[in-house]
Recover the amino acids of this structure.
């Protein structure tokens, strides 16, 4: 099969297309022919995009001296089941599925990926296109975890989404709006209309408008608002989606601040329950992933470069050639 291989950490050009043996589904696994895969800021970061202060050197320590899974990155995918490992009864060959590869296993930037049948995989609903299904979980799970679980958003609260039209922000605007929040989005000037279309009540340009607040919940997606805590109302919560080492330690050691304000910087939970909640939000009309640029597998290095920019619109999707 063809796969995008990242043999070393480095710039987008380290990613090349190679022919590699297709994975075999082990016991309890299904083999999925990938039709579309998401390419996220997380993939770019693992490959070698700049990481928030203090975290860059930790990546090889967490993932190993060389990128994992033989260098095939990629978490979110949509496709069809093409083979079953021993003992699988939940899916049949031919089923349309979507999901995320478990935790640090990755491997979705390839024509086939083997995943646990009882893990983070679901039948693909007709209401999602292949690109939408591939991009469904990354931003949506992150936004829902931070807003609903970590920051315990309540109806009527004032929310600020910093970075409102990327993968996480575009999901956060939709989910916050659905929960009855008053949503302010901070984006670049070219994305103000898009933020409003996604459901923001107010859209502001981060280059010219300071978005003073106060806000009950602030979701700082790119981690570029160092004084965000000062804009919280008493009892407010700050979700540091991209936290540097200092931010993570601060949230861990001293989450509660003056006036009952709280810092939240946990890694999100990727669980079947969290996935089911997001699907329910989609079915309720509250969430649809925003699709930005789409690339054929051969141009995946261009997608990495766009992810590195920190200014992508919504989700990037890699489209695979149709397989026999
Ligand atoms: N904690 C966790 O468990 C967890 C889970 C998943 C992801 N993450 C993190 O979340 C981040 C994901 O972001 P993403 O994929 O949504 O990013 P993205 O798609 O690249 O979007 C970045 C957003 O930031 C905005 N932005 C850029 N410069 C800004 C500035 N100076 N001030 C305010 N906004 C600015 C961009 O707006 P314009 O394009 O309009 O300039 C864009 O909306 C990554 O850092 C990832 O590591 C964390």
């Amino acid at each position: 099969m063809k796969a995008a291989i990242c043999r070393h950490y480095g710039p987008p050009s380290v990613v090349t297309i190679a022919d590699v043996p297709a994975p075999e589904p082990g016991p309890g696994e299904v083999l999925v022919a990938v039709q579309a895969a998401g390419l996220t800021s997380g993939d770019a970061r693992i490959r070698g995009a700049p990481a928030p202060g203090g975290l860059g050197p930790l990546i090889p320590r967490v993932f190993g001296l060389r990128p994992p899974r033989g260098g095939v990155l990629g978490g979110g995918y949509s496709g069809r089941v093409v083979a079953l490992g021993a003992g699988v009864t939940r899916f049949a060959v031919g089923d349309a599925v979507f999901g995320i590869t478990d935790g640090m296993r990755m491997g979705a930037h390839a024509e086939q990926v083997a995943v646990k049948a009882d893990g983070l995989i679901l039948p693909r609903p007709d209401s999602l296109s292949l690109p939408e299904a591939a991009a469904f979980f990354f931003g949506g799970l992150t936004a829902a975890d931070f807003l609903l679980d970590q920051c315990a958003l309540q109806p009527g609260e004032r929310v600020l989404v910093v970075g409102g039209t990327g993968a996480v922000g575009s999901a956060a605007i939709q989910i916050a709006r659905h929960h009855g929040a008053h949503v302010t989005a901070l984006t670049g000037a070219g994305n103000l209309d898009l933020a409003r279309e996604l459901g923001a009540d107010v859209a502001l340009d981060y280059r010219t408008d300071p978005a003073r607040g106060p806000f009950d919940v602030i979701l700082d997606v790119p981690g570029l608002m160092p004084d965000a805590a000062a804009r919280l109302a008493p009892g407010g919560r700050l979700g540091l989606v991209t936290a540097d080492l200092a931010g993570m330690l601060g949230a861990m050691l001293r989450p509660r601040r003056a006036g009952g304000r709280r810092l939240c910087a946990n890694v999100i939970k990727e669980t079947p329950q969290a996935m089911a909640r997001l699907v329910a939000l989609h079915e309720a009309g509250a969430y649809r992933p925003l699709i930005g640029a789409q690339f054929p597998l051969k141009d995946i290095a261009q997608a990495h470069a766009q992810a590195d920019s920190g200014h992508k619109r919504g989700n990037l999707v890699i489209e695979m050639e149709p397989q026999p």
The longest strand covers residues 29-39. The pocket of NAP is lined by residues 40-42, 45, 139, 142, 162-169, 186-188, 191, 206, 221-222, 224, 241-242, 267-268, 310-312 (CB under 6 Å). The helical segments are 41-47, 58-63, 130-150, 167-178, 192-198, 245-253, 272-283, 300-308. The mean pLDDT is 93.
